[in-house]
């Protein structure tokens, strides 16, 4: 991909207004934000939302009796949800406008690189943080720190997730996990998704600090777009459009 094309991908993301937050999603946001998850709804705690913070963030589960489904989300202490750090892992062949260059811990591949190659039929080698809206979800490490594998509760690699940021909602895919290059952190997305949410002030070392972002993951094979997603998209909007119909079906589960 030419750098000029990749630049257009991010420029396009700046002007994206996002979907209006549907009433049922807004109700879900307002229901889970005021209270921490406890008991069977708390899947795993002991996570941080930033370096030097406190280990008070958890992976939580909310069941929906009407649909017989459940969803997984992040919650912190009191009324805090999660912040949005920036991930620039994956296809690094096009630095675009240099904003990923501020990152101090960029990796050359995402966690589901092989799955991306299979889903795309080999059209792309990996996710591109400048194009693909993806969420970093789950924590894998070997140093004794807190871990959580979303697959243990039915979340599938590359499944569609909903992200509520302010008065906007976007869809992304579960594209990466947090490793052991720091404390067990939560709350992170690709640069393209962060740019769509909060503009071009986002870069590899500057995210959205306020813990008011809701990340929602959906279990089941039917949450995975597979070959129907436009993995070969050349800009954020093209890929976002390709997963929107599936995302709309998934959020209908929230009641």
Question: Your description of this structure?
Answer:
This protein has 255 residues and is α+β, with helices and mostly antiparallel strands. It is 21% helix and 25% strand. The protein has helices at 3-14, 23-32, 113-119, 191-198, 236-251, and strands spanning 19-20, 42-47, 57-64, 69-75, 82-87, 134-139, 160-165, 168-178, 188-190, 208-217. The protein has a six-stranded mixed β-barrel with strand order 5-9-6-8-7-10.
The ordered string of helix (H) and strand (E) elements is HEHEEEEHEEEEHEH
Fraction in helix: 10-25%
Biggest beta-sheet profile:
6 strands, mixed, barrel
The percentage of residues in β strands lies in 25-35%
* DSSP summary, beta strand count: 10
- Which term fits the overall shape? globular
Oligomer: single chain
Distance between the termini: 42 Å
Rounded mean pLDDT is: 90
Computed Rg:
17 Å
Write a short abstract of this structure.
By secondary structure, this protein is of the alpha+beta class. The protein has helices at residues 3-14, 23-32, 113-119, 191-198, 236-251, and strands spanning 19-20, 42-47, 57-64, 69-75, 82-87, 134-139, 160-165, 168-178, 188-190, 208-217.
């Amino acid at each position: 991909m030419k750098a000029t094309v990749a630049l257009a991908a991010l420029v396009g993301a700046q002007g994206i207004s996002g979907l209006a937050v549907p009433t049922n999603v807004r109700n879900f946001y307002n229901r889970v934000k005021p209270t921490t998850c406890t008991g069977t709804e708390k899947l795993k705690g002991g996570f941080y939302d930033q370096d030097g913070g406190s280990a008070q963030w958890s992976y939580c589960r909310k069941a929906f009796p009407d649909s017989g489904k459940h969803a997984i989300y992040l919650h912190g202490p009191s009324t805090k949800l999660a912040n949005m750090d920036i991930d620039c892992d994956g296809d690094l062949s096009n630095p675009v406008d240099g904003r990923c260059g501020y990152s101090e811990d960029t990796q050359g591949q995402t966690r589901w690189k092989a799955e991306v190659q299979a889903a795309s039929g080999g059209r792309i080698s990996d996710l591109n943080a400048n194009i693909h809206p993806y969420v970093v979800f789950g924590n894998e490490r070997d140093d004794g720190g807190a871990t959580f594998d979303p697959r243990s509760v039915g979340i599938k690699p590359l499944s569609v997730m909903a992200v509520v940021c302010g008065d906007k909602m976007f869809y992304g895919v579960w594209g990466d996990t947090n490793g052991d290059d720091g404390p067990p952190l939560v709350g992170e997305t690709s640069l393209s998704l962060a740019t769509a949410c909060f503009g071009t002030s986002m870069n590899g070392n500057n995210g959205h600090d306020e813990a008011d972002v809701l990340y929602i993951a959906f279990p089941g094979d039917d949450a995975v777009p597979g070959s129907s997603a436009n993995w070969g998209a050349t800009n954020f909007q093209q890929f976002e459009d390709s997963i929107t119909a599936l995302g709309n079906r998934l959020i209908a589960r929230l009641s």
